[in-house]
Amino acid sequence: MTNQISPTEMPRAGETSELLIPGPAGLIEVMLTAPGDVATPAGIAVICHPHPLMGGAMSNKVVYSLASSASKAGLYSLRFNFRGVGRSEGLHDEGRGETDDTLFLVDWLRQRVPGARLVLMGFSFGGFVSVKAAQQAKPYLQVSIAPPFSKYFNEPVPPRPDCPWLVVHGTADDVVSYDDTVQVLNGFDPPPELATLKDAGHFFHGRLAEVQGAVLPFLQKNWV
User: Fold this and answer.
1) Which residue spans within the chain are E strands per DSSP?
2) N or C terminus of the chain with fewer C-beta within 10 Å?
């Protein structure tokens, strides 16, 4: 069930609420889903979507799949439209302002679920943004789906989130090179956990169950 509530309220157990939250560049359009147990939630997840200039939005099916995995793990899941997408105000900012949006919403949700552990998630461009945000947000877990490291980071190797980290990538990705991703991951110490989906493309058509099959066990086994 989806309903519209005030940004000062929280959705009831198992429900999803549409929100417009005042953020750094104006209103941010948010979909917030509560876990089945809101009295003792396992934590919170903030999920970042693909590139805004290439049609990316929080309605993306991979983003929705990540939100579903977070809900199944007992987390509040928050997906949102970056500035300039949907009803979110502002203009695309090549990852800088989008990182600010992410950090703002992490703080917003942490204030409403005090002491909750954070999972940062992102797909494609959102994977880049969420890794950038991790340096300040300090998540408990990180999940990156087909992150385009070589396209957006100036450094040869991006900063590693200081937490358990899962990367999911398909070998047939024609947008973000799987081989480039493996090369970058091998430069980390320790390297993140890599879930390789053989012959899967960038958008994981027909393979979303396998994405969830990698993400949900990762959340569950690391939630100690």
Assistant:
1) 2-4, 16-23, 26-33, 43-48, 75-80, 117-123, 141-145, 165-170, 193-197
2) C
